[in-house]
Amino acid sequence: MKEAVELLALHDGRAHVLAGGTDLLVKLRGGFVAPQVVVDVKAIPQLRGIESDARGFRIGAATSCAELAEHAAFSAAWPGVVEALHLIGSTQIQGRASAGGNLCNASPAADSVPAMIAAGAICQVAGPAGEREVPVEKIVTGPGRTSLARGEFVVGFRLPKPPPRSGDAYLRLIPRTEMDIAVVGVGVSLALDDKGVCTHARVGLGAVAPTALLVEAAGKALIGTRLDAPALAALAAATSAVCKPIDDKRGTIAYRIKVAGVLARRTAAIAFDRARARNP
Amino acid sequence: MDGTRKFKVATKHHVTTTINGDPAEFLCTPEQTLLDVLRDVLYLTGSKEGCASGDCGACSVILDGRLVCSCLVLGVEAEGRDVETIEGMANGDELHPLQQKFLEHAALQCGICTPGFLVAAKALLARNPDPTETEVRYWLAGNLCRCTGYDKIVRAVLDAAAEMRGN
What we know:
The complex is a heterodimer.
Chain A lengths: L1 H9 L4 E4 L5 H7 L6 E4 L9 E4 L2 E5 L4 H6 L1 H6 L1 H8 L4 H4 L4 H6 L7 H8 L2 E6 L2 E6 L4 E3 L2 E2 L6 E8 L5 E8 L10 E9 L5 E9 L6 E2 L1 H7 L6 H13 L11 H25 L3
Parallel strand pairs in A: 1-2
Antiparallel strand pairs in A: 3-4, 4-9, 5-6, 5-9, 7-8, 10-11, 11-12, 12-13
Chain B lengths: L1 H5 L6 E7 L2 E7 L5 H8 L18 E4 L2 E4 L12 E3 L12 H8 L9 H14 L5 H7 L11 H14 L3
């Protein structure tokens, strides 16, 4: 860990972190990046694997999506995060791609990021000044850009133990059924009280702004409700309201804004069903 | 890593690995992919380069039991690992059941995608000996074929799975 931090700091701007390599090798090949040094962080023990304790889960930043999806306890606790991770690429990509890489590649359309934001994931960052923790939504600052300082890299993520009567979900829209980049992606995590009323809700939104967003107003629209029609309409409106999408071949601005609201409702409904199924 | 600090010229790395069960050693530059090493250094040319961006699956190999695109793995990452390629699939002159079924079902035309499909299908059956058609199609979604239309490939995999289960 110390050696990785030193190398990254020493070659600042000319060093690149290698996790699964599914984005970096394509960029190297295409000449989009020409690092002096590539630091393979997969060999650092803290970056691999899944641990759990009474407070929740800790996942190593370079753990492959396939390993995360195969982990029964993690999949049961955070099904929405796992379904988002599982949507990243083909079987071959799943064997290499990681949550840390998906975040730090800083694509606005990264699938795992809205789900991680909804789940309230905390990023563990190592750097020359030691380790610090940052909410996942604070890492990416724009397409291809992060808030990580000189010599810093993401080591892992902490996710809380889901409370009773809680659930999360992730949906993305693509024009096909597989192997495509999100037009819109929505993650929702919520918790209910013993009467089925929503007490906590977080909404993460991807592919409709320069970064994935935490949509606080959308979460607030659900709190105190049983996700009835007016609550879902308010959720959709709050989600659509924060969209600042681009116009491209995958979708027009108007289409993406509309779909963001629709997808938020559908995702919230799945999270709601999961929360009720988890009723102790 | 001291060498890379002092010299900008990429020096070659000595890598010790296992390929198809046999110990192997090679020299490669830091930016060479595992696919480049397999094809250009070790002359294992069964793995094909289709897209070089992880989209087509023609370069599929099994790395420590995981199906990966060798175009997205650096050669140096093979150090101490276990690599299985298409060359390790047949047992001498005896074809693997998947290879045999690909022939019987005419599941190939030009053949460029075939090694990748075979390695990917082998990885699937190692994990799931009795996959449904849907499972086969999703598992192979990262392998592109522009000739057959996939149906014959899927049928060949299902038939091979049945044979390997002893049905």
